[in-house]
UniProtKB/TrEMBL annotation:
Family: Belongs to the TonB-dependent receptor family.
UniProt lineage: Bacteria, Pseudomonadati, Bacteroidota, Flavobacteriia, Flavobacteriales
TonB-dependent receptor-like beta-barrel domain mapped to chain residues: 464-909
InterPro entries per UniProt: Beta-barrel_TonB, Beta-barrel_TonB_sf, CarboxyPept-like_regulatory, Plug_dom, Plug_dom_sf, TonB-dep_rcpt-like
A matching Pfam family: Plug
Location relative to the cell: Cell outer membrane
Family matches, as SUPFAM superfamilies: Carboxypeptidase regulatory domain-like, Porins
Top-level taxon of origin: Bacteria
The protein's name: Outer membrane receptor proteins, mostly Fe transport
Amino acid sequence: MTDRTINNSLFKTFITPSIFVCEVTLFKRTVVNLVLLLTLCTSYSQQTTTISGQYSNTPLTSVLTDVEEQIGYQFYYLDSWIQDISITANFENENLTTALQLLFAETSLNFHVLETDKRIILLENTIVYDDLPNGFFGQEEVVEENNGKQTKANAPPPTFYTTNTQVKRNYDVAKVGKSDPNNLQESYKLTGRAINSKTGEPIPDLTIRVKGSNRITVSDSNGNYSLTLPSGYNVLSIRAMGIASTEREVIMYNNGNLDLLMEEGLQQLDEVVVEADAYKNVEEVITGSEQIDSEESKNIPLVLGERDILSVAKALPGISSAGEGAMGLNVRGGKTDQNLVLLDDAVIYNPQHFFGIFQALNPFTTKGVNIYKGAIPVEFGGRLSSVFDIRTKNGNVEKFSGEGSIGPVTGNLALEIPLEKEKSSLVVGGRGAYADWILRSLDDESLSNSNASFFDGIVKYHKKINDKNEVKATAYYSRDAFSITSDSLYNYDNRLFSVRWDHRMSDKTNSALIVDNSNYGFGIDFDGESNSDFKLDYSINETELKYKLRTALNDKNTLDYGGSAKYYSVNPGSIEPDGNESDISEFTIDKEQAVEGALFIGDEITVSDKLSVNLGVRYAFFAALGEATQRTYEEGMPKNESTVQDTIAYSSNENIKTYGGPEARVSARYLFTPDFSVKASLNNSYQFLHTLSNNTTVSPIDTWKLSDLNIEAQKGYQASLGFYKNFKENEYELSIEGYYKKMENVLDFKTGANLFLNENVETQILQGDGKAYGVEFLLKKKSGDLNGWLSYTYSRSLYRFDSEFSEERINNGEFFPSNFDKPHDVSVITNYRFTKRYSISANFVYQTGRPITYPVGTFRFNNADFVAFSDRNKFRIPDFYRLDLGLNIEGNHKKNKLAHSFVTISVYNVLGRNNPYSVFFVTDNGEVKALQSSIFSIPVPSITYNFKF
């Protein structure tokens, strides 16, 4: 304390920082009388003492000196309270109390004026109480009210805390907020962010529990957390996977912020794994959410030893693909284009390489993915089925580090480069493939002379400017090139960048400003023997501006709100001759463009310790814009050349057609016990983009089409209900969730549709109804030598296209299975650790065969043979099942060595199951024959060397 220190031990009672230390030599009643006396000594003369001052970023010590000179009072405080504090304030002839309130408004300081001694006592966080709590002297005290009734005082008591210098603490006692004598509450809201002190990365799934109670919370994907605490002293127990467990002592004086800088604790991994995720499963309010950490794919045997979080996602309930090697994911009976896939906030249109066998994401720069397949958060929109929110790592801000792998198909490398110690870093990642030998080994003679290659690269910059501002920027590019036949070279690429500025506006409000751009395109170069060489191109580009905020209004309400605007530009296709001798004519379809916008607000409401509700509304808007030419067709008639009514020309940026409306997001969670909850949700959504493909499975050359005058926006509605239970001290996690989804204006195509380079593609398209429903079961064992999970999904996905005109009707207007309708889906993932260095893993998959349309007979007409086909998707290909095995060998665990390494030896399709990729039919000498092709019909072994330094 300064030279103004008051030595009388009685004054120490209330000026000791943030605590009251009651001296045993004082009589209890004397303390009470003294505090009351000091309060009464604050004279009316305060109102006549005035202060003037103009301060701009002035050190507080200088401000206090100036005030002392003006009024002749002296301040008493500890130097540590005011160091590094600067004041900006202006006032003219303000009375003493008001002036001091203005000076200390943005600090943690309160004040108490002793008018008789002309002393001003500063207090950190706390205040001087003029009443002591009920029962302080061992008996209940009462307050006399105006009507003469005696009732208990209900104001929360001051905080009493006994310092113990003998106890060694890893952290100082945290003092949060500043007491407000006019608004004393029994509980306050603590918010903050969990950060890895070594790397600067946010820590998701950090479990924060209040010791001695069932209050608990889990940090989100950005490390943010929120927890309501009783006023006064609390002890927090903090744990997360890979983070050293610790306890923090916190004194709550008001709502406030506390960032948790956590240290890594890899040696405690086995103990922490159970606690890290267990409570999130039960506590989280939204339904149908999954989270995958990139490390989880390390011990799962996948094709050719590649770590792949999207393949891991397919082992979770409700997520599948049309078949082995098929691109795209089907979530809860939705089409592949109904998934919003984001990489650091920017859309990635095709996140897969090599016909869907590999993901287009470097596993060593990818942090993880949050998957929302039920109650989608209010900030996301534009798709009906799901959101895959993929995040990359922040770089190491302490030292240069890296990670990589060398496998039979790809080589991966990621480097983390600190730019400014503890503040900024750069992540650089790259992958390359040498995959031609795989095509030559596939069970298809037509592929024996084929070749394929791919690569992707990513750069991420991260800068922590100060405690309130953080900037992240990501740039990504991937490209695939393959030749299935000797005369055609196909290529497709993704390009994106995003810039994000996170800003803490106050202890209650955080904001994020995001700018991003995405581009996807493909091309075909044809070089044949005749004069028909050509080059064909397609591309879609989008640019988005998004601003979102999160405000903790109080201990029961947290608002998420903001808006976004997006601009689309589509090149629907162009073809040009390749070479002077080509007979191909140049042709280009008119460019498409549109804008999409949204405003959203949601409130996470804590109704009680057991019941929480998340309510939100999002208004989505879409407008297709000119310059364009659009046809109109006769009302109630099929769209074809004979029903064209008019052709309308729209000028540049003229509005063609608008779609949109409100989207509701409602979810609730009720805790029966701390380890058992029930959740329910209801939501609707709009989708304004569609893929055009008449293939059974997704192709790299599928095109995206914007809604316009003739192609309507899709609509979706989903309800879900689930039960979540943990067993045996959270070692086991069980969930059962059911859902029902209804869809409108889903797309399908007329038989024999010609989609690409078609100026009037609406004549080939059908729009109808869809429905999907199912039950998802998941059982996880998360610790011990044996761990893993079992998932089972029963689901149906059905479409209906009905019309009074036969050309627009499928299967007589009845519901029929979609191409990806597979009722039964079972996945088993297991890992068994023999020692710290050796473990084995297994992956088993079983799925019902997908639907197919079979020929059921032949007939002869005009001396020609024709094949008669069944109703669409009436039959199914054989069921799919596959077993993969892997052996993981960790390097030695010596602390001082150049790099840590491990080797993965795996065998994909151990049983050599000849699972059909597709079934097709040919006519040979008048006889119809069925043939099938497979991707991997034999066991595929691989060895991958991984290293980390």
